[in-house]
Specification:
mainly alpha, three-stranded antiparallel β-sheet, 18 helices, globular, binds carboxymethyl coenzyme *A
């Protein structure tokens, strides 16, 4: 980090303390409070980390006011339109767009790791058939450290690189296996002659009894969904991965922790919840009823796929996905899909409603992704696993950045303690 000269002064009970001010390449200035407790004896209080930068990073930048998302400086709409998922993976992992030779080498490394250890097939069989694929994914990815213990030493550069490639390569295989297991079909081995998205579709939708041809339009839409979910700076699951890995835990365990966090409906689980909500609304005439519920303080219902901690403008990923949903549904001949009609009307209704305007609540990435995934043929339970496999590269890139930082410390937040102070134990008969 560059030497800082600007300072803010904090006064506490007549004593003043200087706090360095860091100027980022983009975004608001950041007050450095690292020495605050040592010098002033106070903690800061920020539940939900609404004002706290937990790390410095060069990977992803979001301007929530403008509705801008940059990976290594490149806008997400340009990457979604001109690039493809594995190229974006390379960009996130190594910092620059690859040359043709670098890309070919990277794609070949990923492709050569798509198969999982054969013993994993038996591991899967321990799960109930009706398990949610996210439950299976958390378990199987966590178990990768038992299958690939030759890439768990976080202090070894080569092992870190192999773990990163293994995770990016095997997550689609594991997610597809979780799906096949839940529908009672045989696992389908990866095909290394197919691109990343086509191979995933092949592993999910082909069966041994019939030939399966991947529709290139569907493969492009799938790849775009992967690309749009690849990274999103210090969100809850990424912060979980960073916190877990700050103890030196192995990468497979850390990514499993990220997957567990992603599952919640306020985070990656929102794509499933959003489609279920659109189904529950069912028809355009019921929209006012659900908008009224979302605004009612006494009703826990929220419009799923709306609102964001950082975006106070439209999520740029939602803009790309809305267009993509129109294209994909038209190309698949299902453009009159009632869910898409409800989604579009609901969006318009909310965008013109004073509650949503004043709170700056706009559609987020989860609002349109489910409609595309459903049109492709995925059940809602697969939406969040698809988010997880796409985000794995973001988690891994952030993990690599953190492990490579000489300033890395174990993450250990403080607290504002409001419980009892010391008191003597009372024997049970006297309570
Ligand atoms: N519907 C109705 N009201 C909402 C919504 C919504 N979707 N989102 C926020 N609000 C209200 C909320 O009630 C609060 O009102 P008040 O100030 O009167 O108490 C205000 O807006 C601010 O909300 P918040 O919960 O304090 O904001 P947050 O930054 O902590 O939460 C969020 C962000 C994404 C968790 C929230 O907007 C939400 O629950 N949205 C629905 C779930 C969703 O779509 N999540 C996906 C997020 S994007 C992808 C991802 O991260 O994985």
């Amino acid at each position: 980090m560059a030497e800082q000269t600007r300072k803010a002064t904090l006064n506490i009970d007549g004593k003043s303390f200087d706090l360095l001010i860091h100027s980022p390449t983009a975004g608001p200035d950041v007050l450095d409070i690292r020495k605050l407790y040592a010098e002033a004896g106070v903690f800061t209080y920020d539940p939900g980390f609404t004002s706290t930068a937990s790390c410095d990073s060069t990977i992803t930048y979001i301007d929530g006011g403008k509705g801008e998302l940059l990976h290594r400086g490149y806008p997400i709409d340009q990457l979604a339109e001109k690039s493809h998922y594995l190229e974006v993976c390379y960009l996130l992992l190594y910092g620059e767009l690859p040359t043709a030779v670098q890309l070919e080498d990277f794609e070949s490394r990923v492709t050569n790791h798509t198969m999982v250890h054969e013993q994993m097939h038996y591991f899967f069989r321990g799960f109930r058939r009706d398990a949610h694929p996210m439950a299976t994914l958390v378990g199987v990815v966590g178990a990768m450290s038992a299958f690939y213990h030759d890439s768990t030493d976080v202090n070894d550069d080569w092992q870190r690189e192999v773990a990163a490639i293994r995770l990016i390569a095997k997550l689609p295989t594991i997610a597809a296996m979780a799906y096949k297991y839940s529908v009672g079909q045989p696992f389908v081995y990866p095909r290394n002659d197919l691109d990343y998205a086509s191979n995933f579709l092949h592993m999910c939708f082909s069966v041994p009894a019939e030939e399966y041809r991947v529709n290139p339009i569907v493969a492009r839409a799938m790849d775009r969904i992967f690309t749009l979910h690849a990274d999103h700076e210090q969100n809850a699951s990424t912060s979980t991965v960073r916190l877990a890995s700050s103890s030196g835990a192995n990468p497979f365990a850390c990514i499993a922790a990220g997957i567990a966090c992603l599952w919640g409906p306020a985070h990656g689980g929102a794509n499933q919840a959003c489609l279920e909500m659109l189904r529950e609304i069912g028809s355009v005439d019921r929209i006012p009823e659900f908008i009224a519920r979302a605004k009612d303080k006494n009703d826990p219902f929220r419009l799923m796929g709306f609102g964001h901690r950082v975006y106070k403008n439209i999520d740029p990923r939602a803009t790309v996905l809305k267009k993509s949903a129109d294209e994909v549904l038209e190309l698949l001949g299902v453009e009159d899909n009632p869910l898409l009609q409800v989604a579009k009307e609901l969006e318009q209704f909310a965008l013109n409603d004073e509650y949503f305007i004043s709170k700056k609540l706009f559609p987020n990435v989860d609002f349109y992704s489910g409609i595309i995934l459903e049109a492709i043929g995925f059940p809602t339970s697969m939406f969040t696993p698809i988010f997880a496999l796409s985000r794995t590269v973001g988690w891994i890139s952030q993990w690599k950045e953190m492990i490579g930082d000489p300033q890395m410390k174990i993450g250990r937040p403080r607290q504002l303690y409001l419980g009892e102070t010391t008191r003597d134990y009372v024997d049970i008969e006297n309570r």
